[in-house]
Write a structure and sequence with these properties.
Layout (H helix, E strand, L loop, with lengths): L1 E8 L10 H19 L3 E6 L7 E6 L2 E6 L8 E9 L3 H8 L8 E7 L9
Antiparallel strand pairs: 1-5, 1-6, 2-5, 3-4
Pfam families: YCII
Protein name: YciI family protein
Family: Belongs to the YciI family.
């Protein structure tokens, strides 16, 4: 079963770029990537640029409306994601716990919908 691991963090709480703490955090992400890849569960994963680069879109009255910024204004921002293919939620949580952002942010684990159960 595929799970999306969403990484939320408050930029004010994460280590500052260029510091030893930032380097240690990134080393933790690289180690998590290597573990997931070696275990054959990593489907994909990427970091996201800051919320200041986001554009939100919605359709109202048949017309597209766009807005600068994320959909919701919160302290914690979606900073990246992983998709893993594992047996169950417990396995997905095991890999989510490898992510260093769990120490200063929140990791959300959510199963992906399978619209083609026979083909996947």
């Amino acid at each position: 079963m595929k799970y999306m691991i969403l990484i939320y963090n408050d930029p004010a709480l994460e280590p500052a770029y260029g510091t030893p703490a930032f380097d240690a955090m990134m080393a933790g992400f690289f180690a998590a990537n290597q573990t997931m890849a070696a275990d054959g569960v990593l489907v994909s994963g990427e970091g996201l640029q800051g919320v200041e680069t986001a554009t939100s879109l919605r359709i109202r009255g048949g017309k597209a409306e766009t807005m600068d910024g994320p959909f919701a204004t919160t302290k914690e921002h979606l900073g990246g994601y992983y998709v893993v293919d594992v047996a169950d939620l417990d396995a997905a949580l095991k890999y989510a716990a490898l992510l260093p952002a769990a120490e200063f942010g929140t990791i959300e684990v959510r199963p992906l919908m399978n619209y083609n159960p026979a083909g996947n």
